[in-house]
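Q: I'm teaching a short session on how sequence maps to structure, and I want students to see two examples side by side rather than one. Could you give me a first protein with its sequence written out and its structure tokens following it? Keep the formatting plain so it prints cleanly on a handout.
A: Of course. Example one:
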Amino acid sequence: LKSILIPNGLVKDRTHKLAVDILSSVPNTKSLVVLCVLKGGYKFCSELVDAMERYICSCEINMSIKVEFIRLKSYHNVSSTGEVEVIGLSNLSHLTGKDILIVEDIIDTGKTMTKALELIKQYNPNSVQCASLLLKRTDKSCGYVPEFIGFSCPDEFVLGYGLDYNEFFRDFPHIGVINEEGIKQFAV
């Protein structure tokens, strides 16, 4: 690792704040479908849904949360391929008329999320919002900005807390930046 960018405790604190912000944005919703983008979003999504459930219980809010999963892949080593591979969208017709929250680990160029939104909107949901743990500051961005952002991060390859480098470092508890030695050692 080159450095730890965001320590685990800070990630958890921010995630709990996002949970409150998200629930405040959908005050009349009785049911929220959380669409977790795998694999990287699993840890953030789990923590976020737990925080939302605790808030719902403590405030006696009448709302249910249902979690669904999708995979979007656009990276090879440290580079975006420019192509978005979608896995798990075979039948999402049950999203029609629902309030959807897409939970993603990182918005890099924004192209992956733009593609996902296009696909999901074909099912005519009532609303679609996105929560991303990280938003990368990069000049390669297509301009997409999610409704809920945990942290802004520099244009470096980050990993940990669900984010990986070729399936390595996904369970590292903090968000860190990989160094050149790690990039070479774990390249495919």
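Q: Perfect. Now a second example for contrast.
A: Example two:
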Amino acid sequence: APELVSEKKSYLSLRFGVPGFIFMSRLRFIMKPTNIIDLIGIIPFYVGLVIGSVSKAWTVVRLLRIIRVIRIIKIGNQSKTIDTLIRSLKASGAALSMLILYTLCYVPIVASLMYECEREETDSNIKSIFDAFWMTMYTLTTVGYGDIYPITNCGKIVISITAILGIGGITLPISIIGVVFSERS
């Protein structure tokens, strides 16, 4: 299996390097977005070869390997569905703006209220404002994990209102984006 990985990296290196040296304008070739993505995907392999197996340096190489996931962006160039999705998101700019603004304004307010309602209660799952943010986010987005929940009546009322408003505030912009997507596909 290590030989296969090495062969794939060699192929990617050749695929990136050979056209760069054949073309007259190498810099223009290298600066194309898809080729930059290839370069970012290849660099961790060569850094790993140069560094070897030094433990602390190897940790950096592992983090660099995560960057290789960026290469999936190139799939967008070959997929009409992804292209349609991107065009739909651009066309739904107002709905997305509303969604982001709604979330950025609503979550801190509700999380603060929730924390104030629950902070005096010793049996409460909400030990910090961050716990309140977490619960507000998953309630607002209608996920509802259930790992953190209010135990006071005040907290239950606040989170119930959040759930109801989450249905309208989150799902309405998402449905607008869905309509635009279905019209474009």
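Q: What should students look for in example two?
A: Point them to this: Residues 1-5 have pLDDT under 50 and may be disordered. Also worth mentioning: Residues 49 and 61 are 10 Å apart (CA to CA).
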